[in-house]
Design a protein that fits this description.
Oligomer: homohexamer
Radius of gyration of chain A: 17 Å
Largest interface: C-D, 45 and 44 residues
Strand content of chain A: 25-35%
Helix content of chain A: 25-40%
Shape of chain A: globular
CATH class of chain A: Alpha Beta
Number of helices of chain A: 3
Structural class of chain A: alpha+beta
Distance between the termini of chain A: 43 Å
CATH topology of chain A: Thiol Ester Dehydrase, Chain A
Largest sheet of chain A: 5 strands, antiparallel
Chain lengths: 172, 172, 172, 172, 172, 172
C-alpha cells in the first residue's frame, strides 16, 4: 500500500456563526464546534483512505477563546498518522472578526477515525508519510496520544504504555 | 455557599436520530452526539450553579457502538464535582431500538463548564456533596481527571500532578 | 398480551429554546412546542408498544405561560390508556429559567398514536395497567376524551357518547 | 374599528416534505405538520390584525391520510371570527404527489391567536365580516368551538355553554 | 401532448424570516432567498410537467430591497414557456411587514428546470399556452432569455442568437 | 486606499451533502448550492473590504453535473474586481466522491456584493490588483459582466454598454 502525505488529506472548512449556533452569551456553543471539527476531520480521513470512515474517538479538547456570533470560523484538518485501520487527524480552528480584521487561533483537537469496507468491517489504510518538521513531530507524538486513548478507554494498562509513562517518571 | 447534591443537577434528554444526524452508513455521526452531550451537560451545570455556563473542556471520548437512524438516544448528565468556578459533569448515553426492545449503553463522557456572572466573569459555584457510592467514586476521581486536563492543556507539569502520576509509577 | 404499566413508557425530554424556535417576542412558538410534544409522546407510545407508531390525533391544547428564549423546556410523556391498536399519551411541559431558578408548568396535552406492524397495518397493543391514583384518574377519563375525539372527527354521534354527554346533562 | 373580510387574511403556504420531516415510515410527522399549520395560521391572524400575535390554543386535530416524503403540502389559512382580542383561524391542508398528479385533502384544524400591542398586552382586533356561505357557517360555529375550548381549559362550566350543550341534549 | 396554461402551474409559498436566515444586519441573506425561489419554482415546474425536475439554470438576479427579520415573504412562481424537455419559470417575491401593514415587491427571477423520466433521462413536457397579455409577453421574451443563457454557458455563438443580437444592434 | 490582491480574499469552504440538502433523486438541490455559494462569496468580499457586505446580484448560473448525497463539495471564492462600493466575486465548485476518488468541477458563478458602513450606507472599498494571468482575465471581463448586469436590471441601455455590445456586433 503506497504511503500518502499529510497534505493530500488537507481539508479547509469555513463556517459562519449563526444565531442557532450560539449560547445565551451569543458565543459559539462548544458542542457545535465539536460537531464542525468532526465533519472537517472525517473528510480529511476520507481523503487519506478513500473509504467510508466513522469517528472512533476525540481527544481532550479545551475551549479558551470565545467565538462570537457573526464571526467566520476556519477549520483546517489533516491526517497525522495511520495505525493499521485507524487514522489520527489534527484539527486547528481560527476565528475572524471581519470588520475588525482580527484572526486568532481558537482551538485545536485530535479526532481518530476507523476506515470501513463495504461490509462495514475495519480495513487497512495507507501509511502516512510525514514531510515537514511539524508533521514529523505530530507523527511521533501520535504514538503517545494513542497510548493515552487506550489507557483512558481501559484497553491498555498504564505500565504497558511506555511513551506515555516516560512523561510521568522522567528523572526528577 | 450551601453544598448541592448531584441529583439536583440530574438532566435527562431524549433525542431521535433523524436523517440529517447520520453519516453515509445511516449511523449517528460522532460529532452530532458530542453536540447533544454538550447541551445535556450544560443544562446540568446550569442547574447546579444557577448561572450561565460555558464549555471549558471535553475529555477524551471514544465511540464503540454505532447508533442507528430512527433509534432513540437517551442522555443523562449530572455534576460530579465543583472546583471553585468550574464544574465537571458526567454524561451517559443509551440507545434504544424500540421495535427490537433493546437498550444498550453507547457512550459516556466528562465535560467541564465554567460559571459566569452577569459581567461574564467566572464566579464561584456551590460545592458538590456526593451521596451514593458511585457519586463518591466520581467525586474522588474527578481530581485525577482534572490534573490530566491541565497537563494536556500545558497548564500543569506532569510532576505536579501527583494523583495522575501515581497511576504510572505505582508498584513496578 | 401482558399488561404494561404507565411508568414503563415514561419519557423525559429536555430542550433548550434557541433563536429559530421563537417568535418576534423571543418566546417559543406554539407550533414548535406542539412538535416537541409529538416527539416525546411518540417515544412513550413506542416504549409501550414496541412498534412503529403514527400520530392519530392531538387534543385541544391551550397556551398560557410564554416560554422564553434560552429557557430549558422539560417534557414528560406517558401512556394513559390503550384502546386496541391505539394509545393515548399525556404530556406535561415545564419551563425553567436557570439563572432565576424558577420552574413553572407551561402546558399539558393529550396525543393519540396508532401502532403499526411491518406491513403498516394497525396492530393490537398491550393494555395499560394504571397504578397510582393519578394514573387511574387518567385511565378513567381517557374514555370521555376518546368520545370527544370521535364526535369532533364526525365518527360518533353525540348521543352515542354517554360519558361525554353526562357532563352536559348532569343535574338540571 | 372597521370590519375586515376573511379573504383579506388568506394565507397560502407550500412546503416540500424533506427527509428530516418524516418518521421511520418516510411519512410526514404529525408534529411537524402542527408546526407548519401554526405558522400559516399565525400569518393569517397577523394579516387580519396587523399586530404581533401569539398562539392561544389549537383545537383537536386528527390525522387520517399519511403524507409522503417528497410530496408537496399546501396549507391555506384564514380568519373565521374575531372575539375581542382573539381570532380563530381555519387551516386546510392538501397533499400532492406531483408525478402521480394526485391532490387530496390531508387535514384541517382550528388555531386561535391573541393580538398583542407593543407592551405585549392583549389588544382589540377588527371584527370579521363573513361573506360566503362557507364563511358564514364557520363564523356561526366558531361560537360553539369557543365554548368547547373554554370548557376544556376549565374556564367555563358545561352548563354555561348553551350552544355546545345543545348538541348533546337535542331531541332524544 | 396537450398544452397547459400558466395558471395551472401557479405556486404560492409563504415564508417567515427567522434568525438563522439573516445576515449580521438582520436582513434576509440573498443566498437563502435564492434557495426559497428554487423550491417555489421547482414545484411550479413539477405541476406543469408531472415529472421530477432538476434545476438547469438561474438567470441573473439582483437584490434591491432588504427583507427584514420577522417579515413575511411571499413567493409566486409560474411556468412561462416550455422548450422540449425544459421549462422556464418566473418567480416574484413580495415582503410584508405585518405590523406596519406594508407590502412591497422585493425581487423577481427566472429559473429553468429539466423534466426527467424514471431513468433520469430528460423527457418532453407539454407546451405552455399563454393566456393573459402578461403571460404572452413572458412567453415571447423567453426566447431571448434562452439565447442569453446559451451564450453565457458557451453553448451558442452570439451571432446565432438573433433575438438577443437585435437588442444591441437595433437602429443606431 | 491601498490595493489588495485577489489571493487575500481567497475563501475555501467544504460542505457534505446531507439528506435534507437533496431532491427526490438524492442529488444536491440547485437552490441549496446557490445558498452555499452566497456564503462563500460573502466571506471573500468581507475579507477584501473588512466591511459588512450584502448580496447585490448573482449572475446567470447553470447546473451541469449532479452532485450526490454523501459527496464532499468544495467551494473556492475570490474577489475579481472592485467597483467603487461593490465587489464582484468568482466562485468555483468541485464535488468529490471519496470512495471512488473522483473530483470534478461542478459549477461556477459570479456574485456581486456591496460594502456597508456602520450606518448601513454603501462605502468605498479598496481596488483589486490582479496578479496571475487568470486574475487579469477575470479583472478585464468583469467590466463586460457588469454591463450585462446593469442592462438586465434595466439600469443601462444596451447601446451604452460598449464592451457588451462588441460581442454581438463584431463583424463576423
Amino acid at each position: 500500500m503506497t504511503e500518502k502525505t499529510a497534505i493530500e488529506s488537507l481539508t479547509i472548512m469555513t463556517e459562519l456563526v449563526l444565531p442557532n449556533d450560539t449560547n445565551v452569551l451569543f458565543n459559539l456553543r462548544g458542542g457545535k464546534l465539536l460537531h464542525w471539527m468532526d465533519i472537517a476531520a472525517a473528510i480529511a480521513a476520507q481523503k487519506h483512505s478513500n473509504r467510508t470512515v466513522v469517528t472512533a474517538s476525540v481527544d481532550n479538547v479545551s475551549f479558551e477563546n470565545p467565538i462570537k456570533l457573526g464571526n467566520v470560523v476556519t477549520l483546517q484538518a489533516k491526517v497525522t498518522r495511520a495505525f493499521n485501520t485507524s487514522m489520527e487527524t489534527f484539527i486547528e480552528v481560527w476565528t475572524e472578526d471581519m470588520t475588525e480584521g482580527t484572526k486568532i487561533k481558537a482551538n485545536e483537537a485530535y479526532y481518530t477515525f476507523v476506515a470501513l469496507d463495504k461490509e462495514r468491517k475495519p480495513i487497512k489504510v495507507a501509511p502516512l508519510l510525514p514531510q515537514t518538521i511539524e508533521e514529523k513531530h505530530q507523527y511521533e507524538s501520535a504514538l503517545r496520544r494513542r497510548q493515552l486513548r487506550l489507557v483512558l478507554a481501559g484497553k491498555l494498562k498504564p505500565e504497558d504504555a511506555p511513551e506515555l509513562k516516560a512523561i510521568f517518571t522522567s528523572e526528577n
